[in-house]
Amino acid sequence: MKKTFVIVLLICFQNQQIFSQSDSLKFGLKGKIIRSLTSSSGSSSIFYAGLKGKQMGSGQIYRSKDFGKTWESLNDGNPIGPYISDIQSISVANDSKETIYVGTWKNGLYKSIDNGKTWKRDFLFPSSDVRSIKVGVQNPLLVYAATSNFGVIKSLDGGKTWKRNAPTVIESTFRFVWSIEIDKKNDHIIYAQTYRKGVWKSIDQGETWKKILDPKRKVCWDIKISENSKEIWVATSKSRDSISSIYHSLDAGNSWDEISDVPQIGISQINVIKDNKRNVLVAGSWLDGVFIFDNNKWSKIDDIDFKEISEILIHNNKLLIGSWGNGIYHYKL
Asked: How many CB atoms lie within 10 A of CB 9?
């Protein structure tokens, strides 16, 4: 009888929509592939996680209101669409509706205007593969979306209509975009990381582009911009090989230096703590977990025991680290 009771308790726990770990280091969505991880535009403690599932209809979105200690599944625990398996990107607008935009693999763009309770696919969006989404900092109706076939697509009216570059512009610049980042002081300025074509910059909402970094045939996986919009860091590696580089600019991408002695771990993600007290660089990898550059030396965070890292967020010297198969780690620097 006791054995049966224990089994019932385990089954009930596994089917809860709230996931929590008592462990002080790692908690949240353990065993899941974290495809995307982002913060709310209106609250410093609210975060969203997009999952990559193993079959059609398994791509879900979770929200945490306590910096990742507990997670709840949106849309009543269901995927936001019946055919979605991969939530590639999430972006939250700073507007009264708390509009959430979600990019998927093969199922286009989805949108919620009720804080994630219900979702609708935007059938007017011209691409099925949405790699990255960014909502305007100053203008919440400005939305940029990175695609694998049409470059960067934008909307000026909160997703009601979409505009893409002319074919001649795409052919002369880039077609496949891994990720995008917006200048924090001016959301007309946007940076695009492309597939094997380097990093590009636009100062006119994506109408025209200029290549600002050629990473020597390495893939640019991640880009971060400082609060003053002057400093930029770009993480690169050769496919998923160990060969890695981190590039740094002090003048908004006009010139670059390659950071020396970077660990050769297949760097996939990067983030920075930069204030009057600390200047810490955090690098996640495809092959060997997370490393930090502090006090002029690199060291591995041994407590993070999973090798493949998909995202790194920083808040008040705390890290939220998404992994490609073991959920979300929490770590205090």
From this structure: 10
